[in-house]
TrEMBL record, chain A:
Signal peptide: none annotated. It comes from Vanessa tameamea (Kamehameha butterfly). The gene is LOC113399462. InterPro entries: Calcineurin_B_homologous (IPR051875), EF-hand-dom_pair (IPR011992), EF_Hand_1_Ca_BS (IPR018247), EF_hand_dom (IPR002048). This is Calcineurin B homologous protein 1. The keyword Membrane applies. SMART domains: EFh.
UniProtKB/TrEMBL annotation, chain B:
Residues 79-90 have a biased composition (Low complexity). Belongs to the monovalent cation:proton antiporter 1 (CPA1) transporter (TC 2.A.36) family. Residues 120-516 form the Cation/H+ exchanger transmembrane domain. GO terms for biological process: regulation of intracellular pH; sodium ion import across plasma membrane. Residues 68-92, 711-733, 763-802, 946-999 are annotated as: Disordered. Keywords: Antiport, Ion transport, Membrane, Signal, Sodium, Sodium transport, Transmembrane, Transmembrane helix, Transport. It is found in: Membrane. This is Sodium/hydrogen exchanger. Residues 973-989 have a biased composition (Polar residues). Residues 713-722 have a biased composition (Basic residues). InterPro entries: Cation/H_exchanger_CPA1 (IPR018422), Cation/H_exchanger_TM (IPR006153), NaH_exchanger (IPR004709).
Length: 189, 1109
């Protein structure tokens, strides 16, 4: 931990991140310290193991997907701070009359959608939904029940009868949900 | 007061008749009350306290007015009784001599009677308002109730019953308030509440303290100027400030329920009004104590003590509530044997929590609120649906009547001679209340916004400050002030009433238009969809994960933690059926499935009659009869098919009830989870509708279905049991029976069906008892139109049992239907006694003459089929007409026996639910129609229906489809029962059958005929006869059963199986199945079906258990 301080961000880096993600410098500093705290190896990047070392996250039923979402842009299975911040910036609350590039409603939904859509084909298939349900609901419910739930869900959202949920259908299904609020957290300053 | 008068005028104008009505009611009340007055005056027990209009504790002359009439009447009554006994002793000699025929003894019932009268008139007034839509649109109910109260109060005053003061603090706090708060707590949107808990607490605690201090200090400051004309000690002012500053949950509820603002806004204001109780109580007691102690002796430790006491009161109340809440959950875990008393636990334990908290001088409101919040989740997992409904409505009833009475009494209490009106004081109080409320809201919402994700905007702030209504709590508190200690108490009372009137009338009336003008987001009431439920839950997890990653411990984190704890430790302990995490998803799913089904039934009540009618035996019968009358030869082909030579088939003859049951059940199951499917169905129905049918449509089906949904459970047990007992019978599907009967009807000679039905009619009376005694032969309602499918014998038993259960659920059997049939076929030409007996499955066992070999030959059958087609249809229609009555008689409970059935394990789920084969089968209609031609036909019929049948082409097919569907059901029955038939007829038409149907040679009628022909029992009869008579018979039946099941599970059952275990004839059935299978890939749907059925049954099981108890 001692040498963490040596990894302080430089001004221009902060500026760049701020430009890109919309976080304030304070938030960036704070998240950076969090980032370095997670980075047990002090290599400036995070591996999946680093994430899963967070105790609460480890028992999160969706931990695998959540962590996976951080690695969407990485090629070497490591996440650097910029990528880290980019992902987190999806969850910044929406500010009126300010630019919301990564944290618009659309982006938030897209992020959630991509977590379902493992194969990146732009559609949530029954199996993909089922996989998520499995993680969330757990083992106490029979496979059949889960399947029927998944099917019911797909049928409900499926407007073009392809037995999949496309992103548009996904958005429509969540039309009435306050996604802006549900998918935002207040990042401390 | 001017506003009040204005309101009066308005209301008079608006609805004079109602006012008259109310006035009359009020007069009545007075008339009742005044004699009481005189009587009570005689009784020494009533000490009318001349000083205080408001006796405070104890019971007023009007008696304690409480929502719970069972309360102990108190000393007053007792004393009255003493006096009455005295008088009776003096009157004794007379009484001994003559026997009093009629006597009036009002004293005895006075208290509860008065309570009843008050409640009655309050509720009556409420009805009155809602009969005047204009009035209730303009004014909130609370205003109108207060107004009525004032009227009654004025009447009472004019009759010199001045002492009528029903709203005592005790009755208010002990009886009227708890129901309202419990209702609020129990139906509190937990998540919303806890999401905004911080804001709520800020407003409730800090905001209330702020208001109290500022109002008190301001009034005191104004008092220093001498404008009030009386001394205004600071402590008195603070005391008054404490009681006047609290936002009142009752008033807030009354107003906010009507304006439907955004849920966030609502929860913040309402939550504040609930939680500020602790603060109010503490401040009130604190300042009261200080006042008694005197300002001079106050020390700073007293203030510290006050703060400490706040913590104790608030946390103590909360803890008591939570503990009682868990207790309730635990108790309801064990009520599965005594469902009837489930609701009482919820009410009593919550009430005990309230009293318990009051006992320790803690916040009862907090206690009962948190009791409701806590118990809800666990209780709802334990209690039955019925109990849930009971609780819901009871709670709403109690709370709304309490609210009604509170406002009415508020009005009554207004009218008395003891007012101490101080214009300046009243005015300034109102001004300060409003101003400081606004200031407080703005300050604290600014603070809250720092920590809130969703910032409170200006409009919301305004609504929040404007919604700070004062109400009965303040009034009850001000009555509690001891006038001996606080000399200004009368003035406080008057001022409090004025403030209440101001907030309730001025603000209450104007808030509605203001909300509209300001364009405040209004809440939309809706049930979450599956997608929302799942994705939102998904987001919760996601956000919790993100919070963990970013190292923040926010809402999501806390909630996640609690959920985990809850799921791990609390739920398993408190819930009877712990279903694991995410019960909400399941719940939503079951709710949606249920709703789909019910909606479908309701929407299609008429269409069902028509459409399904086509499928149903009843329809067939009707058509048949019609044809008889009309003599239209159009469906000649049917004749041959209709010949029922096989005695077994005759046995299978369905009770019409069974038919209906089966169909409905089928429909329900089908519709449950498959929106798409349902569409298709709908369109069917629409197109298939005949004018005749339309005329005869009845809603009974809907009712039945719903009833069934709920109540099936019992039947399951019984039926299943029976089915087990007589293994032979259980094979029979009701549908088959139905089909069989239908065929019989179609039978050119009419003899069979006539006989059967007639017999049925005759024996109707007997039937019911018999059924109870008899087996579950009836039990099988296999809806699946499947052709004969044979599964290996080994599997037979399993299937049969499951089927039995399922069948038991079906509402089908109606002896009454038989009557209808009777009407149509009045001439029983040939009587096949056996036929009758056999028609009713349960009878089979008994029937000594089991089989009358049918002599008809296949060829004959065919011939007849063609002949009788028309008749077939007509009969069906007529039968349909009759069905409703039949259904009524069919009430499930009648069927059931009292036997303690050790249900097969199916109690949890109907066995058929677990029967994959059955499940696999989707719907007969689908198999036939959709499957063949357009396997994946995306357009559901329903959709068509909605779109006004956009596609004409489909329309053409549809009628056919529907018919064929109906037939399919019947056919199944036939086919199953008659294996022989399959041999004969099928080879010819067999595999091609489906295609033929789909193509529909001549239209629907043709299809029908074909189906009939295929299914024709006759075909079965010839061969089958031999089979049946042998020892095989039982097996054969079973086989038929299996066939059905097989048909159901197109996917599941392979031909191989069938071929292995089943005779050739059955194989034919298999073949058909295969065809059907090809038609549609329905697996997913099937699964849904299963799921839905499970859910249904589970719910129904609860209910059934209730009934049993």
């Amino acid at each position: 931990m001692g040498n963490k301080s040596s990894l302080l961000l430089r001004e221009e880096e902060i500026a760049q991140i701020q430009e890109e993600t919309g976080f304030t410098p304070n938030q960036i500093e704070r998240l950076y310290s969090r980032f370095t705290a997670l980075d047990k190896n002090d290599c400036g990047t995070l591996s999946r193991e680093d994430f899963l070392r967070i105790p609460e996250l480890a028992i999160n039923p969706l931990s695998e997907r959540i962590v996976h979402s951080f690695f969407a842009e990485s090629h070497d299975d490591r996440v650097n701070f910029l990528q880290f911040m980019r992902v987190l910036s999806h969850f910044r609350p929406i500010r009126k009359n300010r630019e919301n590039r990564l944290n618009s409603r659309d982006e938030k939904l897209r992020f959630a959608f991509s977590m379902y859509d493992l194969d990146n084909d732009g559609k949530i298939s029954r199996d993909e939904l089922l996989a998520i349900l499995h993680m969330m609901v757990g083992v106490n419910i029979s496979e059949e029940q889960l399947t029927s739930i998944a099917e019911r869900t797909i049928i409900e959202a499926d407007t073009n009868n392809d037995q999949m949920i496309s992103f548009e259908e996904f958005c429509r299904a969540l039309e009435r949900t306050d996604v802006e609020q549900k998918m935002s957290i207040r990042f401390l300053n | 007061m001017t506003s009040l008068k204005h309101g009066v005028n308005l209301s008079r104008r608006a609805c004079r008749p109602y006012i008259k009505f109310l006035a009359a009611a009020a007069f009545l009340a007075v008339a009742v009350a005044s004699p009481i007055e005189s009587t009570t005056k005689q009784s020494p027990s009533i000490t009318v306290d001349g000083i205080s209009t408001y006796p405070g504790l104890g019971f007023g002359p009007m008696g304690p007015v409480a929502p719970m009439p069972g309360e102990p009447p108190g000393t007053q009554l007792r004393q009255q009784q003493e006096t009455t006994t005295e008088t009776t002793t003096t009157a004794k000699p007379k009484k001994e001599r003559t026997f009093v025929i009629a006597a009036v003894e009002f004293h005895r019932v006075e208290t509860p009677f008065l309570i009843g009268v008050w409640i009655f008139f309050a509720s009556l007034a409420k009805i009155g308002f809602h009969m005047a839509p204009k009035l209730s649109k303009m004014f909130p109910e609370s205003c109108l109730l207060i107004f009525v109260g004032v009227l009654i109060g004025a009447l009472l005053l004019s009759t010199h019953s001045v002492h009528v003061q029903p709203l005592t603090p005790d009755t208010f706090f002990l009886y009227m308030l708890p129901p309202i708060i419990l209702d609020a707590g129990y139906f509190m949107p937990n998540r919303l509440f806890f999401d905004h808990l911080g804001t709520i607490l800020l407003f409730a605690v800090v905001g209330t303290v702020f208001n109290t201090l500022t109002i008190g200090a301001s009034l005191w400051a104004c008092g220093q100027t001498g404008m009030f004309g009386c001394t205004t000690p600071l402590l008195d002012m603070l005391l008054f400030g404490a009681l006047i500053s609290a936002v009142d949950p009752v008033a807030v509820l009354a107003v906010f329920e009507e304006i439907h603002v955004d849920e966030v806004l609502y929860i913040v204001v309402f939550g504040e009004s609930l939680l500020n109780d602790a603060v109010t109580v503490v401040l009130y007691h604190m300042f009261e104590a200080y006042t008694e102690m005197g300002a001079s002796r106050l020390m700073y430790t007293d203030f510290l003590a006050g703060f400490a006491s706040f913590l104790v009161v608030a946390l103590g109340g909360t803890c008591i509530g939570v503990i009682w809440g868990f207790g309730t959950g635990l108790v309801t875990r064990f009520t599965n044997e005594v469902r009837v008393i489930e609701p009482i636990f919820i009410f009593v334990m919550a009430y005990l929590a309230y009293l318990n908290a009051e006992m320790f001088h803690m916040s009862g409101i907090l206690a009962i609120t948190f009791c409701g919040i806590t118990m809800k989740n666990y209780v709802e997992g334990n209690i039955s649906h019925k109990s849930h409904t009971t609780i819901k409505y009871t709670m709403k009833m109690l709370s709304s009547s309490s609210e009604t009475i509170i406002f009415m009494f508020l009005g009554v209490a207004t009218v008395n001679n003891n007012h101490d009106w101080n214009t300046w004081f009243v005015l300034l109080t109102i001004v300060f209340c409003s101003v400081f409320r606004i200031i407080g809201v703005y300050i604290f919402s600014a603070v809250a916004n720092k920590f809130r994700l969703h910032k409170l905007n200006t409009v919301e702030k305004f609504v929040m400050s404007y919604g700070g209504l004062r109400g009965a709590v303040a009034f009850a508190l001000v009555l509690l002030i001891d006038p001996e200690v606080v000399k200004l108490q009368p003035m406080f009372v008057t001022t409090t009433i004025a403030v209440i009137y101001f907030t309730v009338f001025i603000q209450g009336i104007t808030i509605k238009p203001l909300v509209k003008i300001l364009n405040v987001k209004t809440a939309e009431k809706r049930k979450p969809t599956m997608n929302e439920r799942i994705h939102e839950r998904f987001m919760d997890h996601l956000m919790a994960g993100i919070e963990d990653i970013s190292g923040k411990h926010g809402n999501h984190h806390m909630r996640d933690k609690f959920k985990r704890f809850d799921n791990k430790f609390i739920r398993p302990f408190l819930l009877r059926n712990y279903q694991g995490a995410e019960p909400k998803i399941l719940e939503t799913y079951s709710k949606l499935a249920m709703r789909d089904a019910i909606e479908y039934m309701q929407r299609n009540a008429s269409t069902i009659g028509n459409i399904s009618g086509a499928e149903s035996m009843s329809a067939i019968f009707k058509n048949y009869t019609n044809s008889n009358f009309n003599g239209s030869p159009s469906f000649t082909q049917l004749d041959s098919s209709t010949w029922n030579i096989d005695m077994q088939e005759l046995e299978y003859n369905p009770s019409k009830k069974d038919l209906t049951d089966a169909r409905i059940h089928h429909l329900l199951a089908e519709e449950l989870c498959k929106p798409y499917r349902r569409h298709r169905r709908l369109s069917y129905s629409r197109h298939a509708v005949n004018d005749r049918d339309l005329g005869t449509q009845v809603n009974y089906k809907t009712h039945m279905n719903i009833r069934r949904l709920v109540g099936d459970r019992k039947h399951h047990h019984k039926r299943s049991k029976r089915g087990k007992q007589d293994g032979k019978n259980h094979v029979t599907f009701p549908e088959f029976q139905q089909n069989g009967s239908a065929k019989q009807f179609t039978h050119g000679k009419k003899k069979y069906y006539r006989l059967d039905y007639i017999d049925e009619v005759l024996q109707e009376d007997e039937e019911q008892p018999r059924r109870e005694n008899d087996d579950g032969g009836i039990t099988f309602t296999a809806k699946s139109p499947g052709y004969d499918e044979v599964s290996p014998t080994s599997s037979h038993k399993e299937n049969s049992s499951s089927l039995l259960n399922q069948l038991a659920n079906l509402p089908g059997f109606n002896p009454l239907k038989a009557r209808i049939v009777k009407q149509y076929a009045k001439t029983p030409e040939e009587i096949l006694p056996t036929a009758v007996e056999k028609s009713l499955p349960w009878r089979r066992d008994r029937s000594t003459y089991n089989f009358v070999p049918n002599e008809d030959i296949l060829e004959e059958d065919e011939r007849r089929m063609s002949d009788d087609n028309d008749t077939y249809m007509t009969v069906a229609e007529q039968a349909r007409v009759a069905t409703p009555t039949a259904t009524e008689t069919m009430l499930p409970w009648k069927r059931e026996e009292a036997e303690g059935t050790t249900a097969l394990k199916q109690s949890e789920f109907p066995s058929w639910a677990s029967n994959k084969e059955y499940l696999a089968y989707s719907s007969p209609s689908a198999t036939f129609l959709g499957g063949i031609e357009k396997p994946k036909h995306p357009k559901s019929i329903i959709g068509l229906f909605r779109r006004e049948s956009s596609s004409s082409t489909q329309a053409a097919d549809l009628p056919i489809a529907s018919d064929s569907e109906g037939k399919a059901d019947s056919i199944k029955g036939d086919s199953s029962s008659m294996k022989g038939e399959s041999l004969y007829s099928q080879p010819k038409q067999g595999p091609s059958l489906l295609s033929k149907r789909s193509t529909s040679l001549g239209g629907p009628s043709v299809l029908l005929m074909e189906d009939v022909a295929h299914s024709d029992p006759l075909g079965a009869s010839s061969r089958p006869a031999s089979i049946m008579q042998g020892p095989h018979r039982g097996q054969c039946r079973r086989g038929s059963m299996l066939e059905l099941t097989g048909s159901l599970s197109r996917d599941a059952i392979t031909e191989e199986k069938c071929s292995k275990s089943l005779p050739e004839s059955e194989r034919m059935g298999v073949r058909r199945l295969a065809l059907g299978q090809q038609s549609l890939p329905r697996e997913p749907f099937n699964r849904q079906l299963t799921m839905a059925s499970n859910l249904l049954t589970s719910s129904s099981s609860d209910e059934s258990s209730d009934e049993n108890t």
